[in-house]
Every structure is written in C-alpha cells, then in structure tokens.
Design goal:
The protein contains eleven helices and ten strands. It is α/β, with parallel strands linked by helices. The chain has a four-stranded parallel β-sheet with strand order 5-6-9-10, sandwiched between helices. Strands 1-2 form a two-stranded antiparallel sheet. The protein is elongated and about 105 Å long.
Length: about 325
Amino acid sequence: MQFKHPEILYFLLLLIVPILVHLFQLRRFKKQEFTNVKLLKELEIQTRKSSTIKKWLLLATRLLLLTALIFAFAQPFFKSKEANKQNNELIIVLDNSFSMQAKGNKVELLKRAIQDILENTPENHNQVLLAGHSTGGLISTLYAAHYPDHRLIKALWANSPFYDFYKSVIEKKVGIPLLSEAGKHLPNAKFPSGLNPWYTPSLHKDFYGEWDFNLDWKPKSMPFVHLCFVHAIHEAQKEIHRGVSLKIPTLIMHSHQSKYPKKWGIDAQQSDVILDVKDMIHNAKKMKGDVQTLAIHNGLHDLVLSAPPVRENVYQQLFQWLEQKIQ
C-alpha cells in the first residue's frame, strides 16, 4: 500500500489523545461502607464489569474512526503490477513568457520554478529531459551548465533558444550593450522591441493559425520591451557567447531559415520570424560537450506549434535522438 499524501500519517500520533482520556476515566471506585447485603455486592460486581467493557469498546471505536479519517486524507492506493513494468513518464510545461522573467525573492520566477520542479520530482522518476523554448531555451542551457552533476537531468532539448538578439552586427555589438547598461539604472523604461508582428497571427486561430490561447498574455504584437528584460537577457547571453560546458547530451533544434516578413505570406508560415537561426548554430559550436544542432524544414519559432507535418517531424527526431542518448 502507498499513500498520495504520506505526510498526513503523522497525525496518527493523535491516537494517544483518546487513550489518555480512557486511562483517566479508569479511576478506581471509592469504597463506601454499606450493610452486608449479598445482592447489592453482586450487583456492584456486574456494574463494574459492564462499565469496563463499554469503556474499552468506546476507546476502540474512537481509535478506529480517527485512524480511518487520517487514512482517508492520506489517500492510500495499491500500485498495480502492470504499472511496475511500465516506464514512468513525467511531462512538465513551463511558461517562459516575459512575465516569468519577473523576480520574486531576488530570483527570476522561471529559474525558481525549474529548481522547485527538479527538487520535488517524485522518486519513481529517475530521468528528466530539461527542455526550453526561446528564452526558456537560454535559461535551461545555463541551468544545465551550472548544475552539471544533477541527479535527474539526463539530457537537454533547446527549441529555438534565445542565444542572441535578431539584430544587425552593429546593433548587437553597440546598441544592445548600451541598452543593457541603461536597464540596470532604468529597469522600467521601455524601448521598441523590433519583434516581427506576424508571429502571433501565424499561431492563433482568430488569425491564420490553429491554436487557441489568451491574447492578453501573448498579444498580437508587442511593440515595446522593458529595459530590465534586455539587461537580463544580455547578461545571460554573454555567458553563452563565451562558451559553456555541458556534461549531458544536448539537442538544439531550429527552423531551417529566419525571415522578417513585412506582410503576411509564406515566409511567416514557414520561418522563424523572431530569432536568427544562424546565431543558434554559431553559439552551439562554442559549447563543449555532446551538442548537436538540427534544422527543421519549414519550422516556426516555436517548432512544436508549426504545421502538423512539421511538428510531427520535430517529435520524431526528438524521440529518435533520446533513444540514442538515454538508455
């Protein structure tokens, strides 16, 4: 027998309460001199015996009820024999949008979420594929580099990771560092994002896509970005640009091309319009370890949100790679 909430079993210690109450009630009868009447003596013995039995039955009932209540909250279950033969799979979905870059207790929410998940992964899972898309791909890569001997992480999958800004060489060498420095002193200041406006319309069913999501969280366009975000990303990217060492097998997937369409068309449907895939390939080559890059033909920025045949290829390639790298 196993329990979904085994920590509740600590409440079994409360069973001592009805036992103590019972013991206090078993106080001896006070002797009272009375006339030597045989009938009354027999009645006294019977009354004592009857009272003692009732108290023990009452104690047993209380203990059983309290135990049953505690077990009910602990949610016991029996693991089937077939389940023991099956491989356990743990699928984790993390939001890696701009809101998750906010800091709580001096740590970015996304980083803290990753750490919490890894620390609280059930014991029956002994392998974790660390995966991230875009900003999440950047963070998960650094996490794998910072914690090379983690007991659970066995591989890394980066889906179009944000290893550099989709800007010209001059903008990346001069403009981004200046904005990053400004972000240290003016974190809430806004700056034009330069993001292509056709990415969200290519995904959402209200426009040209097939997916349904909250447009308040991922709006049709995001013309401005906070400088604190630029600063945080730039600082993380600098470590990537210097080259990181990865002890686990790493697969970096990306579209076969990047485009910046000014109007809706085929390029918006079959390209990465947010990041430059050449930056992903270039920075992947700087990494030490078993690092592989893989281009997905006609993939969008988020490869798993691409057209059905494309995302089917994504998963097929991913699972084949996992079979080769993880035993």
